[in-house]
Amino acid sequence: MRGDGVTKHQLRFRKQRDRKEKAKEKRERQRKQKKSGTIAGFPQTLESLHRVSPRTIGFCKELSRVIPNLTLAPRWHQSLKKLIPKAIEHGYTALLVVNEDMKRLNTLVVSHLPHGPTATFRLSNVTPRRKLRGLKNRGIEDGVIPHLILNRFMTTLGRRVERIIGALFPLESRGVPQPHCRTVVFHNQRDFIFFRHYRYIHKKNDGKTVNEDDPEAESSMEPLDRVAVNEVGPRFTLKLKSIQRGTFDSQFGEYEWVKKGSVIGNSRRTFVL
């Protein structure tokens, strides 16, 4: 008998009961997985793990409002080898995988369908919208195609990463920015890719702000005095880890580039992007 008054038989019974409860929960998850295994939606998708932390779910929801035609879908413990064919069958053009470790975001995988490539980034310094100062009246307009800026990707590998990221956005996002528009910036500095999300605010000569949600504001707009830029978030930083040819395959995939210390070197002036 233990010091707390529990016998060995009682302890064995508790362990058996816990194992039965875990097995029951596992069967329930498998049943839900089979029931909701198919994915339907827009040409691009964002998928996250099952039973992740609220911070990861919030980041995925905010990212789904930044990239147009992006759908948030649970993974339900499905392997990527099974998930990718379903996404291709339903007409998706890209797959984003957000991973966490110990309730902290650490990896972002971008896989273009159906023939690749697949880029893996280390995800860090995530700041959600609610933690940014002065966000009053700075909402994200639904259905507005953002203006995309990809800055300082100078090398051949950098231009490869620029095309991988740029393919997530429609072709219209690379044109001339509209009067009422938001801007998505991927800025490369010392191989760290900083993400920022801004919104334009137009002000008239009398100092009043033009309502961006009013469709008649553009036609009746007087000569503008200035254009202000407000950050609407979220913020995060990416660091390239690898680029793989084709879709994601951890065992038999062919890698174009993998981050190695021997390749990059110890010099702080040696950069690959």
Automatic annotation (TrEMBL):
GO terms for molecular function: rRNA primary transcript binding. Residues 1-40 are annotated as: Disordered. One of its GO terms (biological process) is maturation of LSU-rRNA. GO terms for cellular component: nucleolus; preribosome, large subunit precursor. Residues 18-28 have a biased composition (Basic and acidic residues). It comes from the Eukaryota. Residues 42-249 form the Brix domain. This is Brix domain-containing protein.
